[in-house]
Design goal:
single chain, 434 residues, alpha+beta, PmbA/TldD fold, 2 domains, 9-stranded mixed β-sheet, 6-stranded antiparallel β-sheet, 10 helices, globular
Amino acid sequence: MSLIKFALKEGADDVIIEKNYGETRQVRFANNNVTISNNWSITTYKIFLSLKKRILSTVLFDVSEESIKSSIRNLIKNARALQPNKEYFGIAQGHFKYKPIKDLFDKKIINANVADISQAMINSALENSKSVAGVVYTSYIERELESSGDVTASEKSTSMQISARAFNKDEESGHAVSCSRVFKIKPEEIGRKAGEISKLAKNPEKIEQGKYDIILEPLAIANLLNLVDKSASAFFVDSGFSFLKDKLNKKIGSSIVNLIDSGRIENGYASTAFDDEGVPTKETNVIEKGVLKNYLHNTSTAKKYKTKTTANAGLIAPSPINTILKQGKISKEKLFKGFNGLYVTNVWYTRFQNYLTGDFSTIPRDGIFLIKNGEIVKSVKDIRITDNLQNILKNISKLSNKPEWIIWWGLETQTPVLTPYVLVKNVNITKSKM
């Protein structure tokens, strides 16, 4: 008996079981030397089920059949004690066909020498810095999904992400990252970029608070775009945690802002043929010419909104897959030509002060530069961006023509973002330290 049939026999109404197995490798380096090398072989089972509109889910690392069946029994037992979720309207009903996506798997990543990749970043970073730290991850994953909605799907994929942070003196640092599903990453370029930013960040000074035009590196703007894409989830809109509530078909950004969620883009770091319900993924226009066009849906939220799923399950909360800010037509060099304002290469500790209004703050880190007539006049420190996300979107005035893939672990850029350099007018700058 299959696990799906077992769960249905035990009393479940809807069941989704997803198995993931594969290998992840990690090399970390600090003070110019490799310090940690890890290799994990992991198998997990994600189980979701509903019982009379009561929903529960879990992730299992003990993957014996008896353990899985015991967990299913416990989930059903616990579900009986819950109150029905009136917002739940079921899962997708198949049968589906899936089209392959180009550049999701590359044997070169499986066979890559992770230590050599780390050393290449170290060597290039040290051309312009005194020390460097960072990490390299590679992974190979096979994913299998089955549901009571007559869904059976599987795929295999690879991925790589690298990060280097270079240092000179105190407060003189630079950070650069890259990610890919195939072996197209150039670690020397990432290390060199981090080192060059740290060299430029010499002797940073404080500046006055006020309104500044800002050019944001892909690493910096990706962090803010993550707040936008998460706010587009219908779950967060309904929960009161989104500044996009009641803004469908309304102007929320400048006319050059086109934000797309795509599960199918070639070499997309999170691209997948199917979402967590097994629905074939697609491309969704979230913001088109500054107008909010769509929320992100799973089957349940789509039924509530009387629309179709955008294939963004998230079984509990619809979630973005890959966030894409469409590029502009000018080069990065032309973006800086004649520019007066701040150039921010990275941000962190990005948090909402008010989810419903979009008020947020974030702290620029690593290289921050005051620019006059397109030239760096000094390095800057101790500033905070304290503004509103809708203001940021409305004040985007220029976009460069070469986007970059960004992902950064922790609470920063969790959803992969493909974005160009962005020029934003009249951004509010306050002090991060008094």
